[in-house]
Structures are given as C-alpha cells and as structure tokens.
Amino acid sequence: MPLVAVDLYASEPHVAGFPPKPRDADEADAVAPYLVGKMKDKVALKTTETSHKTFRKWLSQSKGYLDLKADVLARVDDKSAVVIESPQHWLGLRRLEDAPKDLMKKVAHDDSTSPAIAEESSQEIGITMTNGTLDGSIPQGDDFDRVVGKLRLHDSKKALTVLPEELTGLLMNVARHHVARHNEVAEDDDDIDSYPCCVAVPAVYCHDSSVESLLDATGGTGVLFQRSICALEGALLPSADQSKPNLLLGHLGNVLQAM
Predict the structure, then answer these.
(1) Would you state the torsion angle of the CA atoms of residues 127, 97, 89, 82, taken in this order, to the nearest 10 degrees?
(2) What is the mean pLDDT of residues 54-77?
(3) Helix/strand/coil for 81
(4) Cα distance between residue 78 and residue 150, in whole Å
C-alpha cells in the first residue's frame, strides 16, 4: 500500500503519495514520490435525518467512509451544511480554557461542566465545542478530560458527541481517497481506509496529548515528523528541472568549497 503524506497543518494542506518500496533493490531508484494536490481542511456535513443516522452509526463503527460520502458529506460551499474547520487544531486539548483565543473565535463554545447542560445549550443545528471526557462523564480536571464537539445535524435529533480525532480522521480518509484516485484504485477497495499516513506536525503541536490524538486520527497507522525538519529536507532536494538548479544546494556547495 502507498504511504499517504499530508501537510495537515498548512492553510491549504498538500497531499502526496509514496509508492510501496519494491522488493528488488535495482528498482528502488525508479520509484519516486508524487504530488497529488491540495485539499480542504474542512468537513462539511449534510443537515438531514439520514445524515444524523449515518454519522451516528459511523461513530459506532457500524458504517464506513463510503457510507458517509453517500449520506453525510457535503460540499464546503453548501450553505445548508454544517462546516467544521480545521479540527486538527483541537487535538489533545483537555479544557476549553487551554484553547488559543483565535481558535475559540472560529466556533461556538460552551464552558458548562455538566454534559447534559452542554448538550442542550444550543438547540440550533451546528457544532458547539465544550468540556467533556472520553466516556461522557463530568470532567474531573484530570487526563481523562477532553474538549469535545456537540454536533446537531437535525433539529429533531439530540446532539452527537464527537471527538476532534474522529473529525480529523475524516480528513485523513479524504486524503487516502485522493491518493487512491490518483493511482486509479477502485473507490470501494477495502484497503484504502488502511493506507498508512505520514503527517508533518508543527512544533507547537508536538506535545504528548496532541500527538496521541493525531495517531488515533490516523487509525494507528501514522508516521509523524516535525514540520520544520520536513521543510528543510524539502528545500535540500535536488531540482527535477535541470534548467532551474536548487540555489540553496548551490550556495551550500560554494560555502563548503571555500572552507
């Protein structure tokens, strides 16, 4: 299976693929990574009763990504849809008070400590970020606490509790299917949702809780690298176009010769 590489924390995440390593060492030089393109770091969900039911079953793992694509996922420009932006930035947060102010401005939030109160704090369709726990109990101020989303997709249905890693997992599945489509793999191929993922992570998100949540979002297949190191390595790659040499490599070569 290919490795799906995602610059997830960019303003417009790029997706690339790395082919499986060939068994024959002589063929290794002929295998190269490839750029698939850009993707949105937003999740748009339809606001219908069917969407609510399918999404609830997906959370309980009785429905798959293709079911979501058919019944739940909408275009990000659909004005009737619930659009959730950049869920990866919420990964690992234990309490709302720990969230950056700029992040809090982008979503509705409620700092109620009672799960019941938080769930019913807004009857409107949409998502409200609130303090919660892994099992839905009252937050106790320990490592079991999580910032969760209360998602309402239909006004006659109760809000669903969704973790940021579950929403980020949707983004990872979108990236996997982009790579599969690039390789002309059938959309219903069961292996697609198991493609391993590689994510470039900024230093500010490299703390334990965020990394653990991101690994959960990749389905346990994640390979994580610091984004700054990835940028440096990318800058040092030789140019594929011989008429446009890598100026940084040329400068480093001149410095070494002068030493």
Answers:
(1) 10
(2) 93
(3) coil
(4) 21
